[in-house]
Amino acid sequence: MNREIILKPIAFVKNNQKEKSDNNWSEIISEIKLTDNLPIECLDGIETFSHLEIIYFLDKSNKTITGSEHPRENPNFPKVGIFAQRKKDRPNHIGLTIVNLIKKEGRKLIVSNLDAIDGTPILDIKPVFKEYLPKGEIKQPDWTIKLMKNYWKIE
Fold first, then answer.
1. Around Cβ 44, how many Cβ atoms within 10 Å?
2. 57: domain range?
């Protein structure tokens, strides 16, 4: 079945990051400002959570990759399919990040560790429950650790 899905932003990102970067996202504090058509009550209780899952639309991505390529176009990393990496040029241009909730201010959420640029449309916000986190050991190839070394300032 091939049907069209229409999504409308529920919020937008506001921060000082005007262009996509592959490094230092942990240093950026962002605001997620709810759109005016949603009641402020939809954020009731969110301040009781430390982390949120943010689902957003990568609206500045201007190409779509459906095959495989080297992450960050770096030949030192293996060629892998788009679903084996977190590149922005995905078929549906959807991003997902777990952020730290710093505080709620009215219609705004102040967060850290959101790797989205200023103006990015937010599609959904969900609280992180421990019960939804992966069970058991997380397995990932060594190249991903090298790839992410400076993304979040991991030492």
1. 10
2. 11-18+26-129+138-148
